[in-house]
Structures are given as C-alpha cells and as structure tokens.
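Supplementary Methods, section 5.1.

A reviewer requested that the exact input to the structure prediction be made available. We therefore reproduce it here, unchanged from the version used in the analyses.
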Amino acid sequence: MLEDTRALADQAPPQATRSRARWAIVLLLFLAMTLNYLDRQMIAVLKPLLSHEFRWSEADYANIVTAFQGAYAASYFLLGRFVDRFGAKAGFAVAFAIWSVAQIAHGFARSLGGFMAARVLLGLGEGGAYPAGLTAVAQWFPKSERAFATGIFNAGVNIGAIATPLVVPALVLSFGWRSAFVLTGIASLVWLAGWLFAYRTPRASVPEEHSSAVRFHWSEILRRKEAWAYGIAKFIIDPIFWMFLFWLPDFFAKRYGLDLKSFGPPLVAIYILSDLGNLAGGWFSSHLMKRGLSTNDARKSTMLVCALLATPVVVAMQAQTLWIATAILGLAVAAHQAFSVNLFTFPSDVFPQRAAGSVIGFGGMMGAIGGMLIAQFTGWVLGTFHTYGPLFALAASSYLLALLVIHLLSPKMEAVELSEV
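The structure derived from this sequence is encoded token-by-token as follows.
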C-alpha cells in the first residue's frame, strides 16, 4: 500500500492522463471556486448598504473582514491536514457544508456581532477549498499540465467575483439582502450534492481511504525552508488580493461616486482580465516546460513577468478617469492571479503528494494571517488618510518581494523527501 507516492505525484497516472473525467473534475472545482468567491465577496458589494443600515465605521468593517481572515487561517491549517488524511472528496464536502450554512446565517444577522459570527463560520468552511482542490489537481494531472489545470479551476475565483456585482444587486433589489444570502447559500448546497455524487480518486493515485496510512511529523514540514518559501510568499501576496476583493467596490464608490447599481461594469471588467491572467499564467509556465525548461525556470520566469506587470498599480489612485483606473487595476489583479497559479503548484512540485495538503494549508494560513493584517492596515489608512495611495504602492512591490523570497529559500525547487512515521 505504501507505494512511491512521490513518483505518482510527479507523473500523471496513465489512466488519469487518458481520461476525460479529469476535465470534469476541473469543471467541478471551477464551479466550487465560483461559489466560494461569490459567497465571500457579497459582504464587499453590500458594504455601502449594510454600513448605512447598521452604522458601521471603517474600523467596524475592517473587524468583520479580520474575523473572517482569522477563522480562514485556522481552517486552512486544520483542513489541510484533514485533506491529507481523508482525501479531497471528504475535505471538500466538509468545507462546503460548513460554509453553506454560514452563508445562510448572514441572512439572519442583526448586529455587528452577528455578522462577525457568520463571517467566522464562513472562514472556517472556505479555508478547505484550496487544500482539497489543489490535492485533487495533483492526483489527476502531471506537473507539465498542473499549472494550466490549476489556472482553469482558479478562474472560478474571478467568475465568482464577476457574478457578485451582477447577481447580488439583482437579488437584493428583488428579494432583499437577507434573502440574497440565503439563496446563495442554498446554491452551494446544490454543488455539494453534485460533488458527493461525481468525484472519485483516479485508480493509479494513492487511494483516499488509505491515505492516512502514510504519516509524517508536522514539525518536519516546518523545518523545511521550502515550506517557508511557500508560506512567506503567500503571506506577502495573498493580502493584496484580499484588499482588492473587499475594498475595490468601496474605492470606486469613493473615488468615482459609483453605487450598488453602477459599480458592476468596472468590477466585471477587472475580474474578466483577472480570469485571463489565471489562464495565461497557467498556460505560459506549462508551455515553457513542454519546450524543455525545468520546473524551476518555467515557474519563476512566469512569476517574474507577472511581478513586473503588477507594478503600474502604484499610479491607480492618480487615474483621471474611471476606465483608466479600471485598466490599471485589472492588469494588477490579472498579474496576481497568474503569479498565484504558479505559486499554487509549488507544494505539489516540491513535496510528496502525501504532504501537499499540509503545505498548502500552512501557506494558506500564512496568507490569511497577512489578510488579517492588511484588513486592519487598510481600515487605519482609510480612516486616517482617506486615500488608497499607500495601499496601491504596497501592492506594486509585493510580487517582486515574494519572488525574491522564493528564490532565496528554494533556488532550484528541488524535491523534498519526508520521513515516514
């Protein structure tokens, strides 16, 4: 039973490679991330409305975001370990069940504390999405195709972000904001039923029901500089996307006077560009590998291009028109997603498959901790200086810094071997 799982991770199982089922799995993961980010971003789209109704300050909203991030950080760590032990199918099922209930609970919140409690529960569920999804991709795809497959399923993030400013206002205007939360939570439960019915582990992969037979000490992960390369990089770049996700509607409202009915088009444009970044980032590194570049050179070359493309966001605040600002921000968010797609493959590129979920969980926890800090920092900057300028300057430099950390801690992206317990 204890086969060479490292070899299985490095090359796709022949059955899985030939099977069309793997693309159906990617489609399911794509839909999962669409729902994940629709549920997550609703609070950002409804911020002006809810802030007025409940009299939230900038600090109140920052605390709501921080509550989500704290729970998300803990969940990423815990559910990453859960996925390693019980598999992608069970991991996603548990995560979806928790966050679907949490999304519905938003519709019954009547105070700041009620919203914070609902956001905590949402964070506890949503933290399992990436460990489960990336583990599923690692089981079904070889390294040369893994970034592209990840790009496809991660594109659901942006489809969710696109759908939110289009779908949510329509639901709110038709049924009220409470019903909007309930209806989107029910939609997630429908996906859960489809996942339980359709997902299976490829035969040539390590069977999920036996994955707990291969153990390792968690401390061994933390001793590896490669794990810290991934974790610190996530700590640096994830908060930037959180800032975009939770504050872009507010930026457009304050800078250009947009509201619930009018900020949909620029947000949609930004996340369409972001989706293109997902696909391009995954395709480009996979293309370089097929042309003969090593995993190390292909991933890092792609991330360098992405880091450079993010730098113009430093001038977004000075854009004189709405659509110039939209183009600058869209390029930055696209660069983020293309960078992230290649960073997401790092755990399965470097670590054995049996440990990938734990490394992903560790990195996600680090990213969520960074998200907690950026939420408080953003609230302080906006409350004190009333400008997004310092935040966009931080975003412009983060990706080059993250790539430097990765290269210093893992200069060749060499394979890591872990001892069995």
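The chain has 18 helices and no strands. These observations are discussed further in the main text.
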